[in-house]
Amino acid sequence: MTAHTSKVTIHMAASLDFFIARKDGSVSWLETSDVYENGASFEDAEELVKTIDCYVMGSRTYEDALRLGWPYGDVPVLVLTSRSLPADRDNVEFYSGDLRELVGGRLRPRYRNIWVVGGAMVAREFIRLGLVDDIRISIIPILLGDGTPFVDHVGIEQALHLKVVTAFRNGIVELWYELRKTA
Amino acid sequence: MTAHTSKVTIHMAASLDFFIARKDGSVSWLETSDVYENGASFEDAEELVKTIDCYVMGSRTYEDALRLGWPYGDVPVLVLTSRSLPADRDNVEFYSGDLRELVGGRLRPRYRNIWVVGGAMVAREFIRLGLVDDIRISIIPILLGDGTPFVDHVGIEQALHLKVVTAFRNGIVELWYELRKTA
């Protein structure tokens, strides 16, 4: 039963007013200068990243990664897009078909720890289609005031179960939830 | 120096997609059925509430409180409105003038622990005018999917300092921030 051994996690960083990007696309706000004395070391978070064996993202998140410095190494990356985008990496694949088929038919049988890293539209579609097991939000200690909202208007209510709360030394708080299945 | 002995705190509850109200105004989603084993008791939160000596809110938050069961007891309540609203309590006062004057001239000299409890427009105006010391957000373990956003589009960036993170046994996480003054 591959569905039980693989997990799809939405992971995104957001400001306290829950924007995931500035209007101009700049990302310097992600570098917090805050100090939270009792926080965990950010190295713990880096250990976690090593367990991810597949990333899924929208085209703009992909373009940001190309522009800002590729953070995904050689881990397989699925980019959801119908546009024609530059592909100079062997581990990047573009996909424009049915999301349920992609996740159930191709990703879950092959990967254990699949991370959906944005943007807002991709997160919304994954939640709406019931393809998500967990949501992990890293809240950056800033109010951006304006920008691109995190999952806007999914249109359905979804109960969550709080799994873990981690406050890091740089003032970032990670909230980790499991989506609760309705009976 | 009264400005140093009084504190203005924005306190609001929000879903993980950062809505503070359903479209239809119903509030049953605030009653979480989640269980977070290692969480703090919610009684700790109730102790805190006893230290609040003034509430400030917008007219719709006031009307909700009247409709849903008045939670503010006999603590002084300032309702920001230019509308004519029912007032059947001695501790409720309506105000439609300048916010800076209200906070600096009347509230800070008189009260130590002033809580601004919503809604989104009131929170935005307080932040925009620099009248806020702390923000405390209680994140309810649910995605609402749609509703009234928490502080929409303040229009200015504001760095925060993480003070305290508290995860409660009912799955609610309270994030407590201080607004960082820019030099």
CATH superfamily heading of chain A: Dihydrofolate Reductase, subunit A
CATH fold node name of chain A: Dihydrofolate Reductase, subunit A
The top-level CATH class of chain A is Alpha Beta
- Strand percentage of chain A lies at 25-35%
Work out the number of β strands of chain A.
11
CATH architecture of chain A: 3-Layer(aba) Sandwich
Count of domain modules of chain A = 1
Q: How large is the count of helical segments of chain A?
A: 5
Rg of chain A (C-alpha, Å)? 16 Å
Counting copies of identical and different chains, the oligomeric state is homodimer
Distance between the termini of chain A: 20 Å
Biggest sheet architecture of chain A: 8 strands, mixed
**Helical percentage of chain A:** 10-25%
Walk across the major sheet of chain A and give the strand order: 5-4-3-6-1-7-11-10
Q: Which structural category fits the helices and strands of chain A?
A: alpha/beta
Provide mean pLDDT of chain A, rounded: 89
Q: Of all protein chain pairs, which has the greatest interface, and how many residues does each chain bring to it?
A: A-B, 40 and 40 residues
Segments of chain A where pLDDT lies below 50 for 5+ residues?
none
Helix-strand string of chain A: HEEHEHEEHEHEEEEE
C-alpha geometry of chain A: globular
Describe the structure.
The structure is a homodimer. The first copy, chain A, is built from five helices and eleven strands, in the order αββαβαββαβαβββββ. Chain A has about 180 residues and is of the alpha/beta class. At the A-B interface, strand 7, strand 8, strand 10 and strand 11 of A face strand 7, strand 8, strand 10 and strand 11 of B.
